[in-house]
Design brief:
The protein is an alpha/beta fold. It is about 35% helix and about 20% strand. It is built from 12 helices and 13 strands. Residues about 1-55 have low confidence and may be disordered.
């Protein structure tokens, strides 16, 4: 069992505060449902999504070759003497404020700082700016930030708005259950059970497709699922594995079960006309992975690995091969 860091708040309070932070602009959807934690809907997994669009196809692996050359986009950033990187501040172990120090920390924060120092040469010239999930693309296109390092999925829909670096993490849909649960894997955790997921999430689509849950409870903010599980109102939660790991680290009463669904990848996002910046970031990511002393794997071992199921701790499952 993992011990909670001294000085941190109880898990339920943390989850409620994070849900509230989303309403204040810290991340995630806003509105009354997010503020109260009330589910937007309760649906059977047997219901089909009306008017669901056919899946789009695009090349999710296409990106520019890595380069150390400073082109127009990088030179423009250096001319203003500041690189602004959009990050999360509400996802524990990925991008969150340490309650004891007030500093941002986590897996994505490590990468953001590495990219910033590699490009600017001085950490004082790197600004980490919290942005909401829904506001990530707008922050780029509105020139509020230069990069986004915030668990952003490389998808056809996102590629219409932004450019991506090479992928730096494989994500999957995982299931959280109470630590007291005796289920051994994902199928046992959701089969015939009441399962919570965020509305509009990949988890919702996966659960609807599998059709094995007794009931699907949909909420606006995925952290509301953690609260409902703590209160015994749902049996399990499905979410991205990086968020599942953060919740398991935040609350010792829940755990991630073995097995996953719907593999995807995440990358660093930037404006579509910043080809040289994309190349520069790709070089940093490649170098970061190759650095066995202070790079990708060390960050993974610190922030992510301890809270994964025993059968899923291999870093090779999470590092994209391309």
């Amino acid at each position: 069992m993992h011990r909670r860091t001294a000085g941190t708040r109880p898990a339920t309070v943390l989850a409620l505060l994070a849900a509230g932070a989303a309403v204040l602009g810290g991340g995630g959807p806003s509105g009354a449902a997010a503020a109260t934690g009330a589910p937007q809907a309760v649906r059977s997994t047997g219901q089909e999504q009306a008017g669901q669009e056919e899946a789009e196809s695009c090349d999710l692996t296409s990106t520019v070759p890595p380069s150390t050359v400073d082109g127009p986009a990088v030179k423009a950033i250096k001319a203003k003497d500041t690189l602004i990187i959009g990050v999360d501040q509400n996802s524990y172990r990925w991008g969150a404020r340490n309650p004891n120090t007030g500093e941002l920390e986590g897996f994505d924060i490590d990468l953001a700082r590495t990219i910033g120092v590699a490009i600017m040469g001085n950490p004082a010239k790197v600004v980490l700016k919290p942005v909401s999930t829904a506001g990530r693309a707008d922050a780029l296109t509105g020139n509020q930030v230069d990069l986004i390092v915030r668990t952003m999925t490389i998808s056809c829909a996102n590629l219409k708005k932004v450019a991506f670096s090479r992928s730096y993490f494989n994500i999957k849909q995982r299931v959280l259950v109470p630590r007291s649960s005796t289920v051994k894997n994902l199928d046992e955790a959701i089969g015939g059970k009441t399962v919570c997921a965020a509305d509009g999430s990949v988890a919702k689509d996966v659960l609807n497709a599998k059709k094995t849950a007794k009931q699907l409870v949909l909420v606006t903010n995925q952290l509301d699922c953690l609260v409902r599980m703590q209160l015994g109102k749902v049996d399990a939660t499905m979410t991205d594995d990086e968020l599942a790991v953060g919740q398991a680290a935040q609350d010792q009463t829940v755990k991630v079960v073995d097995g996953f669904e719907q593999p995807e990848t995440i990358g660093v996002a930037m404006r579509q006309n910043s080809t040289d910046l994309t190349a520069r970031v790709n070089q940093v990511i490649s170098d970061y992975y190759a650095d066995k002393d202070k790079g990708w794997q060390k960050s993974f071992e610190r922030w992510v690995q301890p809270y994964l199921p025993e059968n899923s701790k291999d870093p090779g499952l999470y590092w994209p091969a391309r």
